Amino acid sequence: MSRQSRADIRDWLPASGATIVTLFAYMPDKQVHTNDDSSLRRLMRTRRKPLALLLSLPGVWCSLAGAQEAPPPDIARSDGLVLRTVPALVDNPLGVGDDVPMYVRGMHLTGRTNVDATVDGDAEARKYRQFVKGDRLTYDQDSDEVVARGNAHLSQGGNLFVGPEAHMYTGAGDGYMLTPTYRLVSGGGGKSERADIEANNVVTMQRGTYSACACTDEGQTPAWYIKASEFEFDQEQQEGTAYNGILFFQGVPIFASPYLSFPTSTERRSGFLAPTFTQSTRTGFELSTPYYFNIAPNRDLTITPRFMTKRGVMLIGDLRYLEPTYAGLFHLEYLAKDRVTGDARYTFTWQHSQSLGYGVNAYVNYTKVSDDTYPDDFGAGTNFQTGVQRVYNREVGLTWSYGDWSFLARVLKYQTLAPSAPQYESVPELSATYNKLDFHGFDFTMPIRYNRFQIASSTGQPNGERLYAQPTLSYPILTPGYFVVPKVIFNAASYNVNYPNGSMMQSSITRTVPTFSFDTGLTFERPVNLFGTAMRQTLEPRLFYVYTPYRNQSSIPIFDSAVSDFNLAEIFSENSFIGVDRIQDANRVTMALTSRLIDAESGVERGRVWYAQRYNIQQSLVTMPGGKPENAGVSDFLVGGSALLYNNITFTSNVQYSPNTSQFNRGDAGITWRPGERRVFNLYYRYLRNPPPVVGQTALTITPINQVELSGQWPITPRLGVVGRLNYSITDKTFIDALAGFEYDADCWAFRVGLQRYATNATTTTTRIFGQLELKGLTKSGNSATEAFKIGVPGYQAPPTNQIPSRFSNYE
After folding, report:
1. Coiled-coil ranges per the record (predicted)?
2. CA angle 709, 712, 717 (to 5 degrees)
3. Residue 693's pLDDT is what?
4. What DSSP character marks residue 87?
5. Quick one: CA torsion of 237, 238, 244, 245, rounded to 10 degrees?
């Protein structure tokens, strides 16, 4: 078409804002006929090669589109180019509705106006979000049906169906196909005897199969598939339903159900999570089959039947909820009758937080366990780092923030499982804290707290009340090169103690102790060149002085205080005790020196070494009951370091050494190598001369901790990986805990298996074997196997989740 002809065409456009659809007709010595009596008898002649036919004729194709208004006059030229106009979709820019035009392509067209039409040769008809292809297309206007025969393809909303014959109703937007092979927009697909496609994005299959596996070879059987008498896929809800379905894995039926619901996207959907198989010395063979209920975007529920051959059937439920003003969860484990003990066994947890407005918030954290041995028998609250949990909180409280004030009111109780000793409960605790920062350079804080403590009478310990206040004033001077922080603290407490009958101990006690501290440090920096890399080295000396006069506190009971662990944080603190029942007298200086190597270009810290030691100018006399005073002179010194090597190797080490006894009291060293994704190797060494006792130990049976720990994750092949952990006691010459696992990650499924051994107390251990099968696209991974790997191996990475393709991935 020449430029002049295009200019002429623009002159023919109506002024009402209509759209123009162009007809290209390239036919080799052929005639294309229509029966439009008002216009065309002979459309065109040409001797050019056949390319394509794109039609928009008002007499035929506008009727296909359902247009109700008469078309505008034809625009015909002697060169065979015919232009037609269709009404502009001004009020419907997306083209949804009966006025949406249909576009047809093919090699040959014949038809009768307002009756029927036939397109032969690579025929295709398209309308909004749907198309139909085939060797031949026929259209019947009375039924508003387009039929494709021969290599038929039908697509609606991104779902594609391929078969010998397809039927599409253009006005209704639905259709059907016999014996199709189909692929849903979500990525799943299969075969069926008949597929019915509805305009509301619902697809129904009769007597077919479904799988989310993407088979690369023609005719290849998926690793897993569902065979059912009927499928229903709701694209809006992104959910599929199988009626009278059987689940096959590697060609073997593994599950059957008259009703089976499953998700068709990566969004949260109701359905089964990956089951877990376990063999344990305490519970026997276990099978856990979680079912996830996606109640709402802000609510969900997981129900897990736990079948145990030695114990019976336990029901586990987890309910989560999230609202603009409150959130929380319920967790319940219930076994109606334990086959070993004959009793009902259970645990229940409720965690809730709620905003009440005006800065007031409420919270609940409550756990109830049926008996002392429940966590030992069923593994509740057990992991490698913390062992078996034996103390459970039961707490409810209110918090309020107003300006510089914050308030707390709570009741804190515990359920303590034997053989752990009972703890003091605070019923209630009322506290208020005032913070005023940078007031003319001063920082002022003042916590005020009231507690009423009680404990079981069988312990023989007193109950009591405590009122405590600690006003603190400091004047921090902070600069890039140095800092100075002088601080004054006033510790005031009043006790009213109720001792058991017959005790001659003082019941009313008042204590006031002032404390002064001075913290200062310098930062020096210089450029260095290390192994050809520009670095910045720092030198950071620090000096910390604290003075607290002696006050006799031996008559004060210990409600919630303990000796702090000796570490880098404690050595720079004013009080060596945790809590407020003991304020240590002190006249001491702490000195420390730190040096860092920082990459000058990236700012990454490549290495650090530090040293800290305390010097007691005079002896500290305040102790915990049964403790010894801290002598004058130098304390243990702490030295440590860390390094980042080759961007994937990190090394850390810390040592506590006593110059008075010439002994190492603590030491640990660790190295981590992370060369790539899902590749990690950890090596740790730990030594502790005087560890705290654990459950089941007495003071006479406590031995030093001298352990070596190895853990790692490594792929053997692109699909198969191993996970392992060994914690070996050099002192006892035995394994404390161990984990060995394998992961196989295929395109359509994953399998994890592990062998785990851990201690439940000082004398007993539990061994279990677990396995988990995940069918990708049908079930999502649960927590049992992957959680055990994460806890056992620092830096563990789960295999990546397959992403469901976009609706445009298979766009035609």
Report:
1. none
2. 155
3. 59
4. -
5. -160
Q: For residues 70 and 218, what is the distance between their CA atoms, to the nearest angstrom?
A: 49
Q: Which amino acid is at 634?
A: V
The rounded distance, in Å, linking the Cα atoms of 340 and 370 is 15
- Residues 404-423 have a mean pLDDT of 92
Alpha carbon distance 424, 452 (integer Å): 10
Q: What is the percent of the chain where pLDDT is above 90? A: 42
Q: Give the DSSP H/E element, type plus range, for residue 7.
A: helix 3-12
**Ramachandran assignment for 376, one of left (phi > 0), alpha (psi -120 to 50 degrees), beta (any other):** alpha
Which has the higher per-residue pLDDT, 498 or 53?
A: 498
Which residue in the block uniquely carries the two structure tokens 């409550």? Answer: 366
Please compute the mean of the pLDDT values over residues 474-500 and round it to a whole number.
94
Residue 240: inside a domain = yes
Three-state secondary-structure class, residue 729: strand
Mean pLDDT to the nearest integer, 803-812 = 56
* Number of residues assigned to the chain: 812
Bridge partners of residue 738, in order along the sequence = 726, 757
- Identify any residues that bridge with 599 across adjacent strands, giving them in sequence order: 535
Give the tokens for residue 635.
């304390």
pLDDT for position 454:
93
Task: Determine the pLDDT at residue 42.
Answer: 33
Whether residue 574 lies inside any domain: the answer is: no
Q: CATH number, domain at 183? A: 2.60.450.10
Q: Give residue 286's Cα distance to chain centre.
A: 26
| Sign for the pseudo-dihedral over CA of 788, 790, 792, 796 | positive
Whole-angstrom CA distances from 5 to 12, 19, 27, 80, 773 are 11, 18, 21, 12, 68
Q: Alpha carbon of 75 to those of 21, 23, 58, 60, 101: distances in Å?
A: 12, 11, 12, 16, 19
Return the sign of the alpha-carbon dihedral for residues 781, 783, 787, 789: negative
Residue with token string 């034996």: 390
Number of domains in the chain: 1
Amino acid at residue number 101 = P
Q: In one letter, which amino acid is 532?
A: G
* Widest Cα–Cα separation across the chain: 123
Pick 519 or 695 by higher pLDDT.
Answer: 519
Q: Which band of pLDDT confidence, cut at 50, 70 and 90, is reported for residue 419? A: confident
d(CA 275, CA 339): 23
pLDDT band with cut points at 50, 70 and 90 for residue 222: confident
Whole-angstrom distance, CA of residue 242 vs CA of residue 214: 20
**What is the average pLDDT across 765-787?**
76
Mean pLDDT computed over every residue of the chain? 81
Asked if the structure places residue 289 within a domain, the reply is no
Exposure string (b/e) for 297-315, b if CB count within 10 Å is 16 or more? eeebbbebebebeebbebe
Res. 648: pLDDT tops 80: yes
pLDDT over 70 at 396, yes or no: yes
Entry pTM: 0.73
Both tokens of 550, joined, read 């002696």
Based on the number of CB atoms within 10 Å of its own CB, is 429 exposed (0-12), middle (13-18) or buried (19 or more)?
Answer: buried
pLDDT tens for residues 557-595? 999 999 988 888 889 999 999 999 999 999 999 999 999
Query: In angstroms, rounded to a whole number, what is the distance separating the alpha carbons of residues 30 and 121?
Result: 14
786: left (phi over 0), alpha (psi -120 to 50) or beta: alpha
The predicted pLDDT at position 431 comes to 96
Q: Give the separation between CA 304 and CA 292, rounded to whole angstroms.
A: 9
Angstrom distance (rounded) from CA 72 to CA 241: 49
Q: Rounded distance, CA 609 to CA 321, Å?
A: 47
Domain span at 131: 103-263
pLDDT, tens digit, 9 for 90 and up, residues 736-746: 889 999 999 88
